[in-house]
Structure formats: C-alpha cells, structure tokens
Amino acid sequence: MTDKVFPGESNTGHVWDDNLRELTNDPPRWWTIAFWASVIWWIVYGIIYPTWPVSLEGANKGLLGWTQIQEYQQGVAEIQAVRAEFEDQIKAKTAKEILADPGLTDYTVASAKVLFGDNCAACHAAGGAGNPGFPVLADDNWIYGGSIETIQQSITMGRQGVMTAHGKILSAQEIDTLANLAVNLSQGKSDPDGMTLFTQKGCIACHGPDAKGMQVLGSANLTDSIWRFTPGGFESAKYTITHGVNDGTDPQTREAQMPSFKDRLDEAAIKKLAVYVYRLGGGQ
C-alpha cells in the first residue's frame, strides 16, 4: 500500500498522518566519510594518548607517554627560564637599584601583584585603596615615611605605633577642644585656643609643634585631610584621643598593627612588594 501511495520510494512502510514516513535511504557520502574518519581518529588517539583503563592502576600510558602534570611542569620550567634573568637581578640589587632600572621595575611591579593580593590586600585592599581602618597606600601620605628603604623596613619588621589614652588624663571639655582642633586643622582652619591646649598638654611631643606629625614615631599628620581611622571627623577624633591607639591600659583602645613579614617572605619577595607599594603612592 505504501508503494502505491509513494511509488518508487524506499521506505520502511511506516506512515503517519498520511505522508510522514520513515525512509531507508543511505546517508550522504560526506557524512559516512566523516563518521568513519572520526572512528579511526578515536582509535589512533586512544593508542597515542592515555585513554581507557587497562588495570586498577589507571589508564594506558599511550605511545607518547603524555600526562597533564608533565605538560604543566614543562610550562612552569619554560616560564621560570624566562623569569630567571630578572629574578637573579632582583636578588642581587637593592630595592633602590631596582627602581633605577625601568625594565626591571616594570617586571617587579607585574610580578608583585600576586604577592600583594596574597599578603597585603586583606588589609590594604586591591590596588592599595585601603579597607576601613587601614592605611591607603595609593596616595602619597606616609605615616612612617615613603622612601623605598622605609617601605622595605615597614614590610620586613612591621609597625606598631602607640598613642596614650587620654580619657583619664584630660577633662571632657579638653578632649572636645582637641577633637575640634583636629577637625579644624584637617580643613585648613585656624584654631588658636585649640593649639594653645595642644601645646600645653604635650601633644607636640609626638605630633610636633606644627601638628604635622613625626615619621620617626609614626604619629599622624593632623593638618591634612586624611584620617587614619574612618570615618574621621569630630567623633572619630574624640574616640582616638579618649582611648588612644594600642594602649594596653584601655580595653577600648584602637588597634593598629602591621605584622612583620620577615619570617613569611624571602628578601626578594619583600623587595618586590616594597617597589610595588612605592610605585602605588609615588614614594618620597
């Protein structure tokens, strides 16, 4: 019956909806060639490369003996061979000498990005933008100084400044006056009464007679608009004056400590980070 409806057509005799039928034509020649070529390719691939398991120990090793680990190790060796020239120079030179070589500096900065991300970004954020409560490294404001030698020393030895808690030393009114002074100085405003108290209470011993801070002590410059502890302003300054910084006698003191990396990183890695941080903020 099918042949009468569709004369001369090769089909299985299965017809649906009057004209939908299953044909028995051979597939196109190009498809047949591609199919058998893929089968042959699969067999050859399985012989050359490790493919199917042949024992409990794993797959056959293949004629080439190729492994992903082996290819990875070769790639690492090639990269290390390219880097070796630069890495040897970094080990032999000081951080200052590295900065004097533009090509070596570019390599050092590029290779230090991962180091910075692994060791520094948790506090100082990506690109040195500074997380809340931690110093910004992308500006040119340095608490302990921005020379390449000082930055390297900070990374190597760590930093921990101290400010005495004045909550039990000064009256509430005096603390308010000094907090207002900090705000006024940050805005470039004159505050004669505040400066008088600032001098009388010995604040100049750490912050200097001009309130610009002393890098040797790590004391903050009160005359710029950069606040060491966020969000800054009157209440922030008042809290710092009252409870101090790293003052063990006050349980509410602010904590500000940078750990030492001398036991975590080798000298070459520390030099890389020093150059990277120096370039972030422009250095001094």
TrEMBL record:
Pathway: Energy metabolism; oxidative phosphorylation. GO terms for molecular function: electron transfer activity; heme binding; iron ion binding; oxidoreductase activity. It is found in: Cell inner membrane. Residues 107-186, 189-281 form the Cytochrome c domain. InterPro entries: CcoP_N, CcoP_N_sf, Cyt_c-like_dom, Cyt_c-like_dom_sf, Cyt_C_IC, Cyt_c_oxidase_cbb3_su3, Cytochrome_c_Oxidase_Subunit. Heme c 2 binds at residues 163, 203, 206-207. GO terms for biological process: oxidative phosphorylation; proton transmembrane transport. Residues 69-96 form a coiled coil. Belongs to the CcoP / FixP family. The lineage of its organism: Bacteria, Pseudomonadati, Pseudomonadota, Gammaproteobacteria, Chromatiales. Binds 2 heme C groups per subunit. Keywords: Cell inner membrane, Cell membrane, Coiled coil, Electron transport, Heme, Hydrogen ion transport, Ion transport, Iron, Membrane, Metal-binding, Oxidoreductase, Repeat, Respiratory chain, Transmembrane, Transmembrane helix, Transport. It comes from the Bacteria. This is Cbb3-type cytochrome c oxidase subunit. Component of the cbb3-type cytochrome c oxidase. C-type cytochrome. Part of the cbb3-type cytochrome c oxidase complex. Its main location: membrane. Its cofactor is heme c. NCBIfam families: ccoP (TIGR00782). The chain crosses the membrane at residues 30-52. GO terms for cellular component: plasma membrane. Heme c 1 binds at residues 120, 123-124, 258.
